[in-house]
Design brief:
This protein is an alpha+beta fold and 200 residues long. Helices cover 38% and strands 20% of the residues. The chain starts with a helix and ends with a helix.
């Protein structure tokens, strides 16, 4: 292919992607967007933010607060005071009003030694999706850091086969939540639900 034909081919391809209103062009755009996000944007953000999970969608309501801070605290106070966390201390935490199902959280890959009580972390469990909950306790044993977390909305830390959040090792830590984008995660949630319906 000579230079002239190659330039004509590029021009035609550019027009097809950006100007053509056909269904095929629309499908190609979706595929290109997926490839760009999955293989360029997401890994680039991961490199920039020092974590393999730079962005997570919140898929449960375990971090939601009902009503005002005072009304939410009234339902949770006993649990937190048992862990020596006062309302004043909780009020100084990041995301002190929690966040909602469908939010997008931006993570930064903090080292385990820098994680403190009140931080919202994302960690691996035996469930398919990573878990995002608040650190309520941290300790060091044999040179390694361990954490206990709790969902702000939950009545207690979860102790189950698939999710043990009372003894999270530093190897399971994926990052610390640093920024919230409200409701954008519903795109992922709806897409996953659609895939489940199609697969059935």
């Amino acid at each position: 292919m000579n230079k002239k034909k190659f330039k004509a081919f590029l021009k035609k391809t550019w027009w097809f992607i950006w100007e053509d209103d056909s269904v095929l062009s629309w499908i190609v755009n979706i595929i290109l967007a997926f490839v760009l996000i999955k293989f360029i944007v997401y890994p680039g953000l991961g490199l920039l933010l020092s974590t393999s999970y730079p962005i997570v969608a919140v898929v449960s309501s375990s971090m939601e607060h009902d009503g005002s801070f005072d009304s939410w605290w009234g339902t949770q106070e006993t649990w937190y005071t048992d862990y020596n966390i006062s309302s004043e201390q909780f009020s100084s935490f990041d995301f002190r009003h929690g966040f909602n199902k469908g939010d997008i959280m931006i993570l930064y890959g903090k080292k385990s030694k820098d994680i403190k009580v009140g931080d919202v972390i994302v960690f691996r469990s035996k469930r398919p999706d990573p878990i995002i909950h608040r650190v309520v306790k941290g300790w060091k044993l044999d040179g390694k850091h361990y954490f206990q977390t709790k969902g702000d909305h939950n009545s207690d830390s979860i102790r189950s086969f698939t999710l043990d959040e009372v003894n999270i090792s530093e190897e399971r830590l994926l990052g610390k939540a640093v920024f919230r984008v409200p409701l954008l995660g519903y795109v992922k949630i709806w897409f996953v639900e659609l895939i489940k319906l199609v697969v059935k």
